[in-house]
Amino acid sequence: MTDPKFTLNLSGGALHDVEPRQPRSPVRSVEFATPRAKLIEEADRAIRQDLTGFPRALAAYDALQSDPEALADWDMANYITMRKLGYNDHGRVHAFITGAASLAILELLLGGGVRPDIIESGIGDTDDVYLTVLLGTMLHDIGNQIHRASHEQHGVTLALPIINRILEPIYPEVFKRTKIRSFILGCVNCHDLNPPPLTIEAGITAVADGTDITKGRGRKAFALGSVDIHSISALAVDQVVIERGVHKPVRIDVTMNNSGGIFQVEEVLAPKVIRTPLARYVELHARTRPEGDEQIVSRVRLDGDHFVMDLDSGATVQVEVEDTQARTAQALSEALDVGVERK
């Protein structure tokens, strides 16, 4: 197994500082740290390292991260989702973490010979792809400030003036600027699979969004009184690692401190792998730490549209990802021979 490209590590409840690397080094490990400002600082450092050699993407990032409208959008999206709905973080920290994750995924895909749609179509080059993926990912959730319902479409409307303002000095030619903008808006519109993304760039945004499932994201919602499957299951995820895969360009490894984290993997991350153009290029694995709470599931891997679960009892269970959480629980109950009515 190769060294990780991206690691969001909250193991044992302690968050550790980033381990710096040389710009454009083939190996990177990022461990985000608290408090909130520190999380953004470490994500910013990782993003800037990945944008070395991509001047248009870096210029766009500099403009975005200091844009007062974007800053207000992130804060208001977080206010509605966390304070009014009791959801996990959807604000500035989430934007920066998923932005860093998206660039890690993009770099691995490019290294694996995958041609994003901007390049495949002849519209732009690698610099344009980095710019598109980063802006689309960092702006993907701002529509939540209006309402969670239809937040993807609200996000497109709200992102338009920000994108136009950022792109105009970078792309003086209206024709190309409009085409690049369409890819960015596609990332925003399709990040939650409603509708599913059609481009590699939008698929990267969706998968990067799905990787932000650790307990750092759920802790504040839990502290604010939101005790539900989303906050509880997020507290069960210690670490997400993005690295070069064995059989595919990208491998995502999820480490849980107990089996409750399966909800995050099954409901949040896995659909964003199998229902995007990245399905052919991403391996997804999850496991529980032996020293964690009493275990039911020890290891999970994605096989097509099914999870293959290795239970602590030694049994193996296959579950369709698109099925409900109740079906997953039923399959586990049957394998463990508990809670099943005998005939």
From TrEMBL:
What GO molecular functions are on record for this protein? hydrolase activity
Asked if Hydrolase is a keyword of the record, the answer is yes
Name of the protein in its database record:
Phosphohydrolase
Name the domain of life: Bacteria
Which InterPro entries does this UniProt record tie to the protein? Answer: MJ1020-like (IPR039967)
Q: Where is this region: Disordered?
A: 1-26
Q: Which terms are listed as keywords in the entry?
A: Hydrolase
Asked if Hydrolase is a keyword of the record, the answer is: yes
The cross-references to PANTHER family, in alphabetical order and at most eight, read:
METAL-DEPENDENT PHOSPHOHYDROLASE, HD SUPERFAMILY-RELATED (PTHR40517:SF1)
* Signal peptide from the UniProt entry: none
